[in-house]
Amino acid sequence: MDFLSGSFDGRPYWAESTAAGEYKTPVMLTDKDGKELILGSWWNYEASEWTALDQPHALSVAPVDWDGDGDLDLIQGTSKGGLYLIRNEGSAQKPAFASSGMAIGIEIPSGYSMPIVADWDGDGLWDILSGSDSGAVYLARNRGGATEPRFEKAEVLLEIHQGKRGTGPGTDTQIAVGDLNGDGYLDLIVGDNTAYSDDSHLSEEDRARGEEIRRELSTMNEVIQAYYGQDEAAKAAVDPGDVERLTSLLELQQQFSPKYIQHGYVWMYLRKKPQAP
Predict the structure, then answer these.
(1) In angstroms, rounded to a whole number, what is the distance separating the alpha carbons of residues 125 and 142?
(2) What is the distance, to the nearest Å, from the Cα of residue 247 to the centroid of all Cα atoms in its chain?
(3) pLDDT, position 261
(4) What per-residue confidence (pLDDT) applies to 165?
(5) Where are the alpha helices (DSSP H) in the chain?
(6) Nearest to 13 by CA among 30, 33, 27, 25
(7) Which of 4, 96, 10, 108 minimizes the C-alpha distance to 51?
(8) What's the pLDDT at 277?
(9) Which residue positions in the chain have pLDDT lower than 50?
(10) Where are the alpha helices (DSSP H) in 137-239?
(11) Long-range contacts of 123-127 (CB under 8 A, 24+ apart)
(12) Residue 166: what pLDDT?
């Protein structure tokens, strides 16, 4: 079994498995013309900049035989939430992906769509499920056919968690499904990414001092822009005394600021059996 992954730089990557059960070094997927398979905006490593910023930014990828022809096509999720199809115009053994994607009419409202494919409702047709930036999980039911999928509007499968932190999924959810308890029904696994600030280690005096530092830094915007900007002449013209004060304030800010804490949990949701009529 090979490994396929999206990436923040806009490209999907493929890691081929070996007979020994190991994986080769991941490589960027290419299209039928041998070019990097890029849906829209992407990070240009040579120029060290983002390009095509007005285009969709692909983050994730899910393989699926979209048209039932025996080879795997690709569904890509994007930062704004739209899902796009990259058709395989080759074969299962020699894929040749289209050089452009096609919107499939599914939008994940809060963005950062992370799609997977599974027959969630057991009707014999694969559906699309997706995590999201908000933390909600969405389901787009397939009401088409084996060779012509057609989807309903994405519905909320798992609501945004509004409870106490650590008692339910946070943001940036990614999902997987499987029959985890062997009862014949697909269950849901949700991974999250949550970040928050914690000032419990600060006294009231510390918080007041931190606010003073933030206010003073806000008056030094011109110095900050000149000193950390790309204009070398403007940087050279900055008063050394201002630079010394700025450096001192930034060091103090770390001492009197809340801690930035980031964590990720994996949540398991076992599916309830349908109630008998």
Answers:
(1) 6
(2) 35
(3) 85
(4) 81
(5) 204-218, 221-228, 232-236, 240-255
(6) 27
(7) 10
(8) 61
(9) none
(10) 204-218, 221-228, 232-236
(11) 125/149, 126/64, 127/151
(12) 81
CA pair distance 236, 239, nearest whole angstrom: 8
Question: Counting Cβ atoms within 10 Å, is residue 30 exposed (0-12), middle (13-18) or buried (19+)?
Answer: middle
For 232-251, b/e burial (b = at least 16 CB within 10 A) is eeeeeebeeeeeeebeeeee
Q: What pLDDT does residue 276 have?
A: 60
Question: Using CA atoms in the order 38, 175, 25, 40, what is the torsion angle rounded to 10 degrees?
Answer: 10
Task: Identify the residue whose tokens are 């060290």.
Answer: 48
- Count the alpha carbons within 13 Å of 70 in the hemisphere toward its beta carbon: 5
Quote the longest CA-to-CA distance of the chain.
79
Task: Return the pLDDT at 163.
Answer: 86
CB-based contact 44:50 (threshold 8 Å): yes
Q: Find out whether 207 and 199 touch, Cβ atoms under 8 Å.
A: yes
**Of 56, 54, 123, 121, residue with least CA distance to 85:** 56
Residue with tokens 């499904």: 177
- Distance of alpha carbon 145 from the chain centroid: 29
Give the whole-angstrom CA distance, residue 101 versus residue 243. 49
C-beta separation of 218 from 250 below 8 A: no
CA separation for the pair 177, 83 (Å, rounded): 19
Contact 116, 177 (CB under 8 A): yes
* C-alpha to C-alpha distance for 47 and 12, rounded to whole angstroms: 20
